[in-house]
Amino acid sequence: MKTFVCLFCFILLSLPAFGLAQETSATLPDVVVSATRVEEPVQDVAQDVTVLTAQEIKKGGFSTITGAIASVMGVQVNEYGNRGSIATASIRGATSAQVLILIDGKRLNLPSTGQFDLNDLPITLDDVERIEVVRGASSALYGADAMGGVINIITKNPGKPVTSLSASYGSFDTRHISAFTSRQVGNFGYVLSAEKETSDGFMPNTDYDLWNLDGKFTLKLSRDANVVFNANYDHKEEGVPGEEDYPTPDAREHDENELFGIGLNINKMHLNLYSHESGLHYWDPLVEDDYYRTGMRGADIQDSFLLGSSNLVTAGGGIVAERLNSNVVGIKNRTTEGVFAQDQLIFTENLIATAGLRYDNYDLGSRVTPRVSALYRPFAKTTFRISAGTGYRVPTFEDLYWPNTGYAAGNPNLKPEKSKEYEISVEQMFGKSLTAKALAFHKNVEDLIQWAELPSGMWMPENIDQARINGIEFDANYVFKNIALSLSYYYQDPKDENTGENIPYLPRQNVKGNISYETKTGLIASLEGNYVSNYVTPGSPSWSYYYLNGKISQKVPLLGGRANGEIFLEGKNILDNKYQIVQGYPMPPAAVNGGVRISF
Questions:
Q1: Is-contact 585 568, C-beta < 8 A?
Q2: CATH number at residue 40
Q3: Which pLDDT score, from 0 to 100, does residue 452 have?
Q4: In Å, what is the CA distance from 350 to each residue of 283, 378, 384, 423?
């Protein structure tokens, strides 16, 4: 690892900094891959999907990938504090282990816990071309862990020569520096970035130190073939303050993630090999240290071809080998193999139907997951969508193999969680400036895994929960000249079918909004707000919160226009609200951060 770090730094610092005085941006802002595993326009996809491009992220004033994901309708990011803490994603009431996190299609969810910490992503915000969020059961294409949805972060490809450097300083002695460079030289291209951020934290033992090193290299073999290689590394050391009622003032944690991959693309055929290694070391003077080292090796292949004149068939398969080496759970391994097929029937450009089916075989059994969807456009600016899909999630290593401590033990007889989900929506364009969408969904979940106390007094995970979640979503986007406005409203009714009660600690209502204003002189001002009201246990006080973030930046031409400078100032929780996203874990108070960025 040290050799890789030294080589990476040497390459990054020695690269020539020639090129146009502009930054790269999303080259295909209206294209999505994750919904059907085929690159196609967003307006032709029948499932509920949101694409957030690099340009939209910049205009929205988001400074982290986690913040950008949290702005998407139907997504709840459960943050346990500042950037040094855990942040996991939930979609439509799904647990974080039921949402599949990907980088360029490579799986990140850890087999130990089933989830992935968004604050441990081994890429920088500069690397992001777009973020694709597919809501709803998606196991028909992605297998296990996609029963709640998929978040796929697509990284930038090499393009016009560009290099940028940025530095900022803010509240709680938070310091951030980053570097990004990209260039295409003949058939060879590269994208390299580095980032470091440190903070003293907003309360005792919330300090952190994180850094990323990322590289993406492409080689064009012919007009229709290319090879892509990526190497990404993330390192974070942070304090772990614990819950308010159970503080751990001296606890510390060290996390790291390494992601390596190589892909071969020939026309519509894609072959990918990747490796994801993750390490966690938790130590507290009062308890025994915890060590986790997880590894994942993945390989997948797919191809698309026309069958007749109206059937676009996509088929493929893959294998994922997972392992865990931990002083808590021990050494565990498992392998999953899967194959899938999907047929898009394009009757006309205004009537498209999609049907998919996947078969997975894993150590504890096998699973077949279908999905169907349809899109109908009766008028040029009106689109109806309907879909039905299934999902599942296999038990984690901790659920299965937690050691018998006398008061808790894992359960090797657990069955996978499974779900069925249905949705229907209508989208309407009003002129060229306003787009609005309304959607309703219904989801049934069975065999939910929950740790429960047995009559013997032993705590053990069991397949005891069943849930039903109904919900509605409204989304509107308005763009006119130099103003962009987005507003969404989300409501869900989650029922525990065993008790008939609402499931506590899930959002009841969620309102999100973002407005940005841009001038021809390079001034960008944005405001982002989020309001959440949560369900609680009967008799408990109501639990809701809101926050408002803002950012203003001004571009400054440098060196006679050969470079661009940018000065920015951003505020987080600018109304200084005291709130908690996860009960027992306070979020930071008002914070201000300012900095500069130079691109050439």
A1: no
A2: 2.40.170.20
A3: 85
A4: 58, 7, 10, 19
User: What's the structural domain count of the chain?
Assistant: 1
Q: How far apart are CA 165 and CA 58, in angstroms?
A: 16
Query: How far apart are alpha carbons 272 and 318 in whole angstroms?
Result: 9
Average pLDDT taken over every residue of the chain: 92
Q: Hey, what are 207's tokens?
A: 């300090």
Q: Is residue 254 scored above 60 in pLDDT?
A: yes
Which pLDDT score is estimated for 30?
73
Q: What's the pLDDT at 16?
A: 34
pLDDT for 29 beyond 80: no
Domain interval for residue 163: 2-599
**Exposed e or buried b for every residue in 191-205, given b needs 16+ CB within 10 A?**
bbbbbebbbebbeeb
What is the phi/psi pair of residue 50, to 5°?
-125, 135
CB 227 within 8 A of CB 221: yes
Phi and psi angles of residue 563, each rounded to the nearest 5 degrees, phi first: -145, 160
Residues 130, 133: Cα–Cα separation, whole Å: 10
DSSP reduced 3-state for 137: coil
**Sequence letter at residue 524:** I
From the list 32, 370, 84, the residue with the least C-alpha distance to 202 is 84
Reduced to 3 states (helix: H, G, I; strand: E, B; else coil), residue 470 is: strand
How high is the pLDDT of residue 7?
32
pLDDT, tens digit (0-9, with 9 covering 90-100), for 110-169: 999 999 999 999 999 999 999 999 999 999 999 999 999 999 999 999 998 999 999 999
